[in-house]
Specification:
two-stranded antiparallel ribbon, globular, 37% strand, alpha+beta, 10 strands
Length: 150
């Protein structure tokens, strides 16, 4: 069926192709690069995981932070950050889901979504909460401390 030349070429490709890591190893590598953080609302603590991106790492470098989260459009809580984050390599737009931690780059503010929202230019995902958002859902301004989880 195969000519000797084609057979030799296929064998050569098979021998020189890079090995593919099994999915559990790849998953472990991804997990080890992500940063766990915590949000403290009074006595309640929520955990989250930052993405291994330029913006996610830059946000982690800014921690710990004491912020006042404010409701915005009955969809998200926002707070001003002390400085702009490096968004090198970030997509131009993002469609946030419930629990996403994002940066709205044009304003330089943190935006935490407790409801899904439409794809928006300038929105950069930083990470997401690991579970319940209950303390975040309280009406009005919400003081929070954000830090690297121990």
């Amino acid at each position: 069926m195969f000519t000797p030349l084609l057979r030799a070429t296929l064998l050569s490709l098979a021998l020189t192709a890079p090995a593919v890591a099994d999915s559990s190893e790849t998953l472990h590598q991804k997990d080890s690069m992500m940063t766990k953080i915590q949000f403290t609302f009074g006595s309640e603590v929520l955990t989250a995981t930052l993405d291994d991106t330029t913006a996610g790492r830059d946000f982690a470098a800014m921690l710990p932070l004491e912020l006042e989260l404010t409701d915005y459009h009955d969809t998200e809580k926002i707070a001003d950050l002390p400085r702009k984050l490096d968004t090198t390599g970030a997509p131009a737009a993002y469609k946030p889901e419930t629990g996403d931690i994002t940066l709205y780059a044009p304003w330089g503010n943190l935006a935490i979504f407790y409801k899904p929202f439409r794809k928006s230019n300038g929105l950069v995902r930083l990470g997401a909460f690991d579970g319940s958002l209950a303390p975040l859902l309280k009406a009005g301004d919400t003081p929070v401390r954000i830090e690297i989880a121990e």
